[in-house]
Design goal:
Mean pLDDT: 95
Largest sheet: 7 strands, mixed
CATH topology: Aminopeptidase
Order of helices and strands: EHHHHEEEHEHEE
Low-confidence stretches: none
Number of strands: 7
Shape: globular
CATH superfamily: Gcn5-related N-acetyltransferase (GNAT)
CATH class: Alpha Beta
Structural class: alpha+beta
Length: 170
C-alpha cells in the first residue's frame, strides 16, 4: 500500500468532479469514487489549503494505492502540517467497493509511521463520528484513546481520539 501525493491541479480537478482532468494531472490512475460527491468537498478544502500554503502539500490528503493490484482504492492523509503543539490529524476514506480488505488499516498505519518519522509531530489525532463503528474500532486497535468530543462543521458530532506519535512503532 502506498500514499501517492497529488499535484495542485489534480486536487482542483477532483474538487470539481473532473476525473479526466484529475487523471491527466495525477501520477497514477484514479477512480470515479475519488471524483464523486463523497470526496469532492475534501479535495476542495485541500486545493484551497495548498493554494494558500504550498508547504502544506506534503502533509495533506493523498490517494491510497495498492501497487500489487495496480489499483487506487481511496484517500488518506493529514489535515495539514503539525500544529504548534505537534499534533496532526488523520483522515481517510476507502472506496466502498474496496472496504473490509485492510486498506484503511494499512493507510492508518502508514500515516502513523510517517508521523513517527517526523520530529515535529508529538501526537496523532483522529476525529470519528459516533456512528462510525468501523473507524472507531480501527483507531482503538491502533492505540488511540478517546480524549474528548467536538462538533465538526461538515461532519457534526465527533469523538476525538489521540495517540502519541511513534507509540506502537518504537
Amino acid at each position: 500500500m502506498e500514499l501517492v501525493e497529488l499535484s495542485p491541479a489534480a486536487l482542483r480537478a477532483l474538487a470539481d468532479g473532473d476525473l479526466a482532468a484529475a487523471e491527466a494531472a495525477a501520477p497514477v490512475p484514479l477512480s470515479p469514487y475519488l471524483a464523486g460527491p463523497e470526496c469532492r468537498w475534501v479535495w476542495g478544502i485541500r486545493a484551497e489549503q495548498v493554494g494558500t500554503d504550498p508547504a502544506s502539500a506534503r502533509w495533506i490528503t493523498r490517494v491510497v494505492r495498492d501497487p500489487d493490484r495496480q489499483l487506487t482504492v481511496g484517500r488518506a492523509g493529514f489535515h495539514g502540517p503539525p500544529d504548534a503543539s505537534g499534533t496532526v490529524e488523520v483522515g481517510y476514506s476507502i472506496d466502498p467497493e474496496h472496504r473490509r480488505r485492510g486498506y484503511a488499516r494499512a493507510a492508518l498505519r502508514a500515516l502513523l509511521a510517517w508521523a513517527a518519522d517526523e520530529p515535529a509531530v508529538t501526537t496523532v489525532r483522529a476525529a470519528v463520528a459516533p456512528a462510525n463503528v468501523a473507524s472507531r474500532d480501527l483507531v482503538l486497535a491502533e492505540g488511540f484513546r478517546a480524549v474528548g468530543e467536538q462538533i465538526d462543521e461538515e461532519d457534526g458530532p465527533e469523538i476525538v481520539y489521540e495517540v502519541a506519535a511513534g507509540t506502537r512503532l518504537r
